Amino acid sequence: MSYEGVLEQSGLGLRDLVKAGEEIIGYIYPHTPLELILAHGLTPSLMSAIPGVSSGFEESLQTFACSYIRNLYNQRTNEQLPQITGLLFPSNTCDSLQNLTDIWKIRFPDDRIYRLTYPVTRYANDDSAEIYLKKELEFLSKMIESTLDRPFMMDNYERAVSMVREFRHDAQFLYSARVVDPEVLSYTELSRLVRSFLTAPVVSVASEIHRVSMSVKEKMKSQGLLDIIDTIKSGFQEKDFSKVKPFKHPSGPRILVVGGMVEPQAIATIINGINGVSDSILVSDLLSFGFKSVFAPPLDKNGEPFEEMAKSILAAPGEPTQEGLQYRMSFLKDLASRALSRRSRPFFKRSCSRISQSVFSNSS
Ligand code: SF4
Question: What is the DSSP string of 110-154?
């Protein structure tokens, strides 16, 4: 399927939700507290770029605004966005997003815009970033309640925590299983499943992912690989691969895609579009809408909700804002040496003003 077809599918997911009468809060930044929005009886949905959208109003944005931001803005000016209740923008993340929020508010003053401000950095043995983000989350919750008359409902929150936890549990297993055997589930299918959930975090989509995860588990169990997969999953969760058990790597080149807000489905389409190459060459990604969303730690239902959400967002892996570049690079080297097992060769492709996308590949 072409990338346009893939995007059409995720757009359909959002349109189906709107048709079903769901009230949607669109979000753009990967580390959005899905549980908070669901607790207010609303459905969070990740906004997509649509190829080929342009308008005469792009000049309102600064020159540094990335193509994703431009595309979203153009969708709005062309009235191509579905009917959504509101949009959640992040603050303190990148200049493009800040610019988009500012311009959007001026140009579309009747749109409901919410903003969640993230801490810029965090220091070891200092919980001030967590306290700060907890307060911001409480503030966002109050804003949603006062503007939409939708209070934070504890039973909605608990259901959301269970559903998102199950999604993360299953998707983390699938990511880890593909490191050992990328043929067990195509990267295209894995990224489609994750994208479906981020577009429509509803029980039916979580159940589909659970069914796929159960079937992959059966296959891996019959090959005696579950223990190894567990060590890889723990390595991803704890960002420490020292306890990963050795395993036989599939022959041929293996690619790990590293970057920021790049659509995993776009990467799959590019790789599958190369003559004689399939996406089984992709051992994993470290992308914001893939790995980083999947491996954010699930919440503890028994903890204080806002504190739990702040802790989970701040513990999402691979975020330079929260971890610092040096820490992130050593995580990457450790992962590349264990997941790819041989000497890795980086290729760089500039993808956004904030993070460069790099592809680590070994030579077979
Ligand atoms: S982080 Fe990069 S891709 Fe994401 S909005 Fe900012 S500039 Fe665009």
Answer: TS-EEEEEPPS---TT--HHHHHHHHHHHHHHHHHHHHH-----H
Q: For residue range 203-255, what is the model confidence (pLDDT) as tens digits?
A: 999 999 999 999 999 999 999 999 999 999 998 888 788 888 778 877 778 88
Mutate to test the pocket of ligand 1, among 66, 92, 287 (most ligand atoms within 8 A of CB): 66
* 356-362 and 344-350 strand pairing: antiparallel
Q: What is the pLDDT of residues 70-84, one digit of tens each?
A: 888 888 888 888 889
Contact 233, 168 (CB under 8 A): no
Q: Is residue 195 part of a domain?
A: no
Q: Give me the domain span that covers residue 103.
A: 3-152
Task: State whether the beta carbon of 9 lies less than 6 angstroms from ligand 1.
Answer: no
In a domain, 27, yes or no: yes
- Confirm or reject: Cβ of 66 under 6 Å from ligand 1: yes
Residues of the chain above pLDDT 90, percent: 45
The verdict on the CB of residue 174 being under 6 Å from ligand 1 is no
**How many domains does the chain divide into?**
1
Q: Does ligand 1 have an atom closer than 6 angstroms to the CB of 321?
A: no
CATH of the domain at 99: 3.40.50.11890
Q: Is residue 298 part of a domain?
A: no
Please give the Cα distance from 295 to 286 (Å, whole number). Answer: 10
Structure tokens at 163: 């559903």
Cα 59 to chain centroid, rounded: 29
